[in-house]
């Protein structure tokens, strides 16, 4: 194998596939990056067997030459060293060559590295997905769907299914749902007619996979193609394949958690409320629960307070846009509320309560597609 | 005590004094920040008993009012909470008030904090230094003196005196010297005539103190005043007092370590050499020594190489500006060499060797005031 490649292109691809490489894998060869040169260009692969990422650098695109002097072949290079080497090479182009003894030479300017490679035949084959059952989304919309839900997945393994995001197709909508059983985040988008005959109805994608995918994807309006099979999901852009396993098991039916009527509705500016809750939680650094209390007052005032006997207490007055319905005192996790308010993605927020002991709902004003639900905390 | 203050000014002062506050102190009240309001303005103090920092915010300066409605008094506030509170308050001004029960109220906009304070009388008094024996330097020059030497102090406590920087007055020069016994960094500057009658000749300032001081000081040409007593040093700018204890004991005489003649001299571009050594050390991540080898070649070429049998090897060719004297092969710590080259602060560097087993010297070209010395490593 041999090729000469633009260093910056190689660096970007290496950084992308590195998102899938873990140093703690039980399969030694997966601590490496597979490098494969073909007549079409260069393909890099990283995998921890849960997530696999392939990045392709074409020989030439839009009149720009990225890879030259290609002699096809493949090798696996240690991910511990290869990215740093590429990053620090002195020249704009890099020559990489391997011989029959798996010795790899990397040359750039006055710099020459000799590395011990591993046999690419020992690297696991990625499953070939049947990509018939696929649909497309703008990349920036997918990134928003992820950002607005994935923070709410469970981080404990007691119910593994809750560590994933439930992706559902229902009544012409694509719905992303995450819950750790204390709070729930969901967002749905209408599906285009062309995407409307999807065969899958509900899958669960590991939260970690979506977090890594979100890091790699650029916020462009270019389409990303999503293909779902029984136990895998593939996200595909022009030069990137991102393959993740799906979680086994049935995701709980969450729709019954969502209260259908409300007794108190607060309309507020999102940022002011978020900052008040942030401040009210400052003295509760020690306690994991980080609980604050919300009290509706006269004249559309909302009070947020918290009390940490040893340290002191805080009272925040927030001028709500309006308060409808019953008076209310309710306690909840400041962290959950801040996560929810950040995910709402709107200047104005509508919060619907059904009493101090019932879950409450946070939504952007005039938009039912984003829904955040939080279970209150009993404080007496 | 009561006052109303500009939040940004308060924040900056809090961040400065926090550099001295440690959560691991054995004196509980030192986990707090002392806040003292006088008719002149507000004084904040933080200390871990090794370092003490005072920051002063004048009531008014250059026609700008910083502190208003002052009722003199003092209190100690927990450093764990106070900085975050100040940072996140909603309005540009903050009102702080304490009562006779040490209860403190902090108000800003709709936000009101009640904190339990501690009695300021229990906070240790900072020693009043006799500041007669003092001299002045431009602040940016002091920052450079620190940066070019402090990295070379010892980080192990086997010889505590080596964890400090030796500051000496000698033959009209002020000299900063640091060594961990494997390498040495020094820089001297000529003293002005007015600074030339200093009574101290040699003190040792803890490296940690200088590192914290460097973080606080802005790189301006304003003067900083330095006062030295038997066991303390005080750095003083217009609104900042930085007091550090000195290290007890005699600093070793280092001048005899510096070879007086050389057998091989390499002149090179600093950055190219630095980057080559950085790359050559990449494969030695595992080994703590991080040793690379330098070999002089024909035609003013320098080869830097390293070999990690399991991973591979690197060879770097660097075009030196010139090489004078004997041929040379020498091994040394890549980290020490990179630290030294960064401290040289010049595009061109002069390296003087006296054989493979003798310490060698790195200096900026045409400037004898900065000197970096490294002991080679035996590799056979």
UniProtKB/TrEMBL annotation, chains A, B:
GO terms for biological process: DNA strand elongation involved in DNA replication. Pfam families: DNA_pol3_beta, DNA_pol3_beta_2, DNA_pol3_beta_3. Residues 256-378 form the DNA polymerase III beta sliding clamp C-terminal domain. Coiled coil: none annotated. Keywords: Cytoplasm, DNA replication, DNA-binding, DNA-directed DNA polymerase, Nucleotidyltransferase, Transferase. Residues 136-253 form the DNA polymerase III beta sliding clamp central domain. SMART domains: POL3Bc. Forms a ring-shaped head-to-tail homodimer around DNA. This is Beta sliding clamp. It comes from Sediminibacillus albus.
């Amino acid at each position: 194998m041999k090729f000469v490649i633009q260093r910056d292109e190689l660096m970007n691809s290496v950084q992308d596939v590195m998102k899938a490489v873990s140093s703690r894998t039980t399969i030694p060869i997966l601590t490496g990056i597979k490098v494969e040169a073909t007549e079409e260009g260069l393909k890099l692969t990283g995998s921890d067997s849960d997530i696999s990422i392939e990045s392709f650098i074409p020989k030439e695109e839009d009149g720009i030459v990225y890879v030259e002097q290609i002699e096809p072949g493949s090798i696996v290079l240690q991910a511990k060293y290869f990215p740093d080497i590429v990053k620090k090479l002195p020249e704009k182009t890099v020559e990489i060559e391997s011989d029959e003894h798996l010795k790899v030479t990397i040359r750039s300017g006055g710099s020459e590295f000799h590395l011990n490679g591993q046999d690419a035949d020992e690297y696991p084959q990625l499953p070939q997905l049947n990509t018939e059952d696929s649909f497309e989304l703008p990349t920036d919309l997918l990134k928003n769907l992820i950002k607005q839900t994935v923070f709410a997945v469970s981080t404990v393994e007691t119910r593994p299914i809750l560590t994933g995001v439930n992706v559902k197709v229902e009544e012409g909508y694509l719905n992303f749902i995450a819950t750790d059983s204390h709070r729930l985040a969901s967002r749905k988008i209408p599906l285009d007619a062309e995407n409307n005959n999807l065969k899958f109805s509900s899958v669960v994608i590991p939260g970690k996979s979506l977090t890594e995918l979100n890091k790699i994807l650029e916020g462009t309006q270019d389409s990303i193609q999503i293909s779902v099979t029984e136990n895998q999901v593939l996200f595909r852009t022009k030069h990137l394949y991102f393959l993740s396993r799906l979680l086994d098991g049935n995701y709980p039916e969450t729709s019954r958690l969502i209260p259908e009527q409300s007794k108190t509705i607060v309309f507020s500016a999102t940022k002011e409320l978020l900052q008040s809750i942030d401040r009210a939680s400052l003295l509760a650094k020690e306690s994991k629960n980080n609980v604050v209390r919300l009290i509706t007052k006269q004249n559309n005032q909302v009070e947020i307070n918290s009390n940490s006997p040893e340290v002191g207490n805080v009272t925040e007055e927030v001028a709500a846009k309006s308060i409808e319905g019953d008076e209310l005192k309710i306690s909840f996790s400041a962290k959950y509320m801040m996560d929810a308010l950040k995910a709402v993605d709107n200047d104005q927020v509508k919060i619907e309560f059904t009493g101090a002991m019932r879950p409450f709902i946070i939504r952007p004003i005039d938009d039912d597609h984003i829904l955040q639900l939080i279970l209150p905390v009993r404080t007496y």
